[in-house]
Amino acid sequence: MTKNALATTAVRFATVSDMRIEAIRLASTGKQLQADMHELNLSIIHHLAQHGQIGVVNHWLAQFEKVESVRKNAMVQWFNTFGACKYNEELGRFEHVKGKKLELAKAKAKPFWKFGALENDKPIKLMTLEAGIKSLIKQMKDNRDKLGVPFTPEEQAQMSALTMMQSGIIPAKYAHTEH
Predict the structure, then answer these.
(1) Per-residue pLDDT tens digits for 116-127
(2) If we measure between CA atoms, which residue out of 38, 15, 19, 39 comes closest to residue 27?
(3) Cut 0.70: pTM above it
């Protein structure tokens, strides 16, 4: 793009003064939005503790997915810590945890945005079977290497079957290693 073309391109904030004013407005709006979200979170965990209705937590989480918010992971951590719920990654939703004590004062003192990032704060994604098997194989190999414990011949056969299944060489229904 040439300098003249750039100069004639319409932008919303054309002057440095306009940009500074907008930056101040957004910072103020952002703080209020975070405060409002925190109040909603507190209301949700209070309602969950009283009634055990998990749907409202999952509905709130779904709103984050609509805008592909990278802060979703921090929100998940916050609800896992303070709500009577636990995020089920396989199902992609929260599940109610009966009997978990509500600590509203602690929840109020640590809003969700104070939680650190998970995996560079990327949105949580459902793990595929292939990725799960690959991860499991790597964890098992790393664990055995650290402990200096070799695989038995039977375990090696099972690992080979898992590897072939993971790579698609043999369908999962034929990957039995039992005798």
Answers:
(1) 765 444 555 667
(2) 19
(3) no
